Give the backbone structure.
Amino acid sequence: MEILDEINERLKLFNAEIAHVYTETALDPELGPDINELDIDEKLKRAILQYGIKKLYKYQYDAYKKIKNRENVLIISGTGTGKTEAFLIPIIDLAIKGERTVLVYPTKALARDQLNRIYSLVKELGLNVGIFDGDTPEKERERLYRDPPHILITNPDMIHIGLALSERFKFLLRTADHFVFDEIHVYEGVLGSHLRNLVDRIREFNKEIHIVGSSATIKATKYLLEELFGVEGDIIEGSKRRRGVAIHSLINSKGASRWTLSAFLSAILIKKGLKVLIFTDSQQMSELVAKIADKFGINLEVHRAGLNVEERISTEEKLRSGKIDGVVATPTLELGLDIGAIDAVIMAENPPNFTKYLQRAGRAGRRNKVALIFTILGEDPIDSYYLRHPKEFFERQINSLTFDRTNLEVLKIHAAAYLAEKFRVNLDKLPELWRRAYKVLNEEGMAKIINSYVYATHNTRKFVSSTSLRSIGPIIRIYEKDKKIGERELPQALHDLYPNAIYLISKKTYLVEELNLNSLIAKVKRMNNDLPYYTKPLYTMDLLEFHKKDEREVYGVKVEYGDMKLLMSVLGYLTYDIYSTRKEKTKNEYTYNEPINFTYVTKGLMIHHPLVDDFNLIDHMEAYHATEHVLISSARVVAGASLTDLGGISFPSGHVVIYDSAIGGTGVAKLLFERLEQAYEISLDIVKSCSCEDGCPNCVYSPYCGNNNKFLSRRKSFRLINDVIEGKLNKRSESVEGSPIA
């Protein structure tokens, strides 16, 4: 395409280039019967025909038959191939017969966005449809209570609180005949753990309920329905990919700032009249890209978590109505919100996994337009790996959902909520993990165990009211004077809100004046001028406790997995040039008089690396620390981890700890534990193929390293990994010794 030639020419300004182009063409799924052949209500047939559907696809017809027979199903089909209609048509037909469905979307915004789509099918059918979420007015709630809707649209957060604290909402849920969960690829990590426990509460552990799941991008097995919903069922697959033509380009940044390149590329496209959506995986980097875009003469708005809801809704409306031509977003816009026709998607960084890549790419080129998708590959180990193996980038397998059903922090929330609903629960009739959760709640004063029963206390409902499915850790509230302007969850907040950190909100620059972990408040002040630098924390991690749950050998090396108690200490911060087009260079380093400490529990693996005979103490430290970094990088390929899903700690004794960054654990570290052989093989390719002297961002440096990438050696890591794989090493230290490096 001419536009790609022009972009490639203009990228030379930054010494960058389009390194690989892949054209994707997908046809419609296999056709099924005409609408008039279906055994459904005649008025519904007319509504479907008016909606513009004359034939079902075969997979839609298969789903229709199973749903009408009350069989549990998981529907998988690519973006724009009609997966919504696959469950909507049968549940509307069942509604006409008097049966009720709860339709669950992962967010309020998506639920409300889908309402118009549903109304267009049911408006002439005399059906009662309603949304019930935290924003539903009291008058509308009363209407829904008086006349329970045939289709109740809600979200997991409302179900969580409503089941526990509202008798009338509980009645709406408990009397429903069918439950549909759309966009289930979202339910990974902590949110997946929440969903499984929420469904267990709906099922009351062993009650039979009818479940329908749906997603455009997920690897589905017959075990997924059991893992996620606790029921058995069938998988129905339509098209594996999005419909239409998409042109995917991988851009080699060659050391240029990916944030500057993203802003520059968006300016080229917007000035050609295209509507652009840029994705980042960092809240602060999305703000940074939007600020840099101002320098190229375009105005990009920001859409991310942590902003006030009103700001996000305003941005969605402006994009949908054409008042703005571009948005920088975190994964908040991955889902199928109607934001109008997007012409191009720019991924400022390689997404955590292929599922997210496909989901983001699917936002472009709707309504039969050719989609343009650009991914900027920078100076990091996995991006360098894919630049050497570009075909592998597009031939990756879609991962199954990864979540940890044993996350005790999640279980405590749902156990308390179930107790608030029931007031008294028989422990003997509960799963073992739930009994463990109630014992902890009893110790914390949130429940009272007497003999074989657990009873709610005056603290139970209060605790449930304060909980959220979107987080486990404590929430830091961000204030400018007396006005709350945002929030951030711990421990992630410690990467952004330490004293003197530069924090960006809605393209405005703030300086963090104070962080109080006791009151969970960060105080910031607005900076009048754009500052020429941004900040990153200097920190250490220490392993306080480790309780083994599993063990295996990997190339003869002992590897354990289990529960961990960690201590994060922020020691100071670094400043970096904000507009540098070359790789990051530290401007200054500052340390605090007293560190900021935060202790939390999670899950992770401990690798008992052997000792290399001719290495001294420093050699070993450089080898272990570099290997920790490169194994975490490899987890992006083998476990679908994002850059911030995992953290690591290295010890001079050879022990390397890799842990889930979220409190309680997400399941990503467990997946790495199970696939560690593959991670070592990819790591070997990374440290072997890099042409640097002895360490660089392309191989062993990490942007999230706590000590600013000190004590790292690519060559020594290569020696260690190669000798491990070849089984040359067997001498090791049994106990964890020495000062840790994060």
About this structure: The first helix runs from residue 2 to 11. The mean pLDDT is 90.
